[in-house]
Amino acid sequence: MSTQRTLLEVRDLEKHFSMTRGVLKDEIGRVKAVDGISFEIAEGETFGIVGESGCGKSTAARTILRLEDPTDGTVRFDGQDITEYDSTELKRFRREAQMIFQDPDSSFDPRMSVGESLAEPLIVHGMTDRERRRSIIEKLLVRVGLQADDIDRYPHEFSGGQKQRIGLARALVLNPRLLVADEPVSALDVSVQAEILELMEDLQDEFGLSILLISHNLGVVRHICDRVGVMYLGELVEVGPTEELFSDPEHPYTRALISAIPSADLSDRGDRVRLKGDVPDPSDPPRGCRFHTRCPEVVPPEGYDLEQRTWRSLLDFTQRVEEGMDLEAVYDLLHPEEALEDRDVPERLPTSDVEAALRSEYDLADDIGDPDADAVFERAVERLASGDPEDARETLASEFTTVCRRATPELERVGPDHRTACHLADGHQQLDGRPADTDGPEADRLDRPAE
Ligand SMILES: Nc1ncnc2c1ncn2[C@@H]1O[C@H](COP(=O)(O)OP(=O)(O)OP(=O)(O)O)[C@@H](O)[C@H]1O
To answer: How far does the signal peptide extend, from start to end residue (predicted)?
Structure first.
């Protein structure tokens, strides 16, 4: 990490959105968009936050700039807690911390010339001298690769890349110390993305800026960030120096994101990890490690000898049964073509048919390699076929249990400046972690069923 002093310090930041119902606006839940993230950015440093869509990156950025009020946690800028700022301090902060957005088109008023748009922040912050404003803006336009006389042109006269250059000029016109860039190049042609990123790097050096870069694109983050935080479902799961994180990723989510980067080298295709499904609902995140429902490296249950792929399938099946796989759902699996109104579900279904359908659905071989695990699976299948999903659920939950569901891994050090929140990482292997905060069927472990 940079030896420069810290400019931005984010501690345990949370932003939850209330979900309400009816005219009385009763709260029926909370979207935990940002759920306890901590990191810092040094002066002159570029820190990237990366993750799939919906994992909370933009909300984090907006909350850090106090465009949203945090639910909990602190954001310190130059040592001061911005959540405590009064309106005067907030105005000064808004000068020192600027943002650029993904879509340069929608961030400009089409009726205002470039000069008028860029003069606005100067006027708001008290620069009354028109000539001085014009001179500052012209110099900045040249600095971002445009021409001084572009000052009198209108947004529609520029390409996307040029508009993002103007966006950068507008962000820098007040000489800020922090630039928050939310997907600054994802709306641009690939050919101009690198130009804009290089411009940002040059401007950073020249203006001594700290940058918080938000992107779903790991290539973009790798290009210009000194350090990276990987975000999943409102939490940071790994934070480390960029090259170390890319060459030696510690979290399975980071590994999956890196392996999904399109590579010219087709020979490595076999190693690609494909993450199944979308990011789960942030109003009801999975307990334990939030990534365990999609993790390709989820820790297997003790006492079984299973290949990772088989274990992942068994856990997917367990999760599905827990979510409420009943006799009707099993029937639908056996009769996918049957219309809903023609459905006549009997009290029990042939166990062998159910077993074959479920093995096919979850890609489980006839012999999964461990007779004990097979016995658990078969018992669950038999209970499902008999219309007793509760027993199936309890059997699976008590047997196919994993530390990844039982305990929440903390972000712990795996290198001098590298931290990860994964039970697999060094220091997590004692399988402790924080207990998951919801009681579930695993809370009361059942005895292993008779074999
Ligand atoms: N004002 C809001 N009210 C309710 N939920 C919100 C609000 N803003 C964001 N969310 C939810 O919070 C979660 C995180 O959204 P956010 O936009 O921060 O994610 P993101 O990682 O930036 O994704 P994207 O790149 O798609 O914008 C999402 O589930 C989103 O629907």
So the answer is: none
Q: Does ligand 1 come within 6 angstroms of the Cβ of 310?
A: no
User: pLDDT tens digits for 163-186?
Assistant: 999 999 999 999 999 999 999 998
Question: By CB neighbour count within 10 A (0-12 exposed, 13-18 middle, 19+ buried), where does 302 fall?
Answer: exposed
| DSSP, res 139 | H
Reduced to 3 states (helix: H, G, I; strand: E, B; else coil), residue 174 is coil
* Alpha carbon nearest to ligand 1 atom 8, residue: 59
pTM here is 0.87
Residue 37: CB within 6 Å of ligand 1?
no
**394 vs 444: CA distance, rounded Å:** 9
Q: Are 405 and 280 in contact (CB under 8 A)?
A: no
Q: How far is the CA of 72 from the centre of ligand 1 (A)?
A: 17
The domain locations on the chain are 6-20+29-225, 308-401
Scan for tokens 């020192």, then name that residue.
Answer: 96
CA distance 273 to 304: 24
Task: Give me the sign of the Cα torsion angle 4, 142, 185, 101.
Answer: positive
Say whether the ipTM exceeds 0.90: yes
Give which of 62, 301, 79 is closest to 71, Cα–Cα.
Answer: 62
Query: What CA–CA distance (Å, rounded) separates 211 from 441?
Result: 45
| Nearest Cα residue to 311 out of 401, 431, 405, 424 | 401
- Which tens digits make up the pLDDT trace of 365-391? 998 989 999 999 999 999 999 999 999
Domain 6-20+29-225, classified CATH 3.30.950.10, yes or no:
no
State the distance from the centre of ligand 1 to the C-alpha of 375, rounded, in angstroms: 43
Residue 71 CA, ligand 1 centroid: distance in Å? 15
Ligand 1 midpoint to CA 245 (Å)? 25
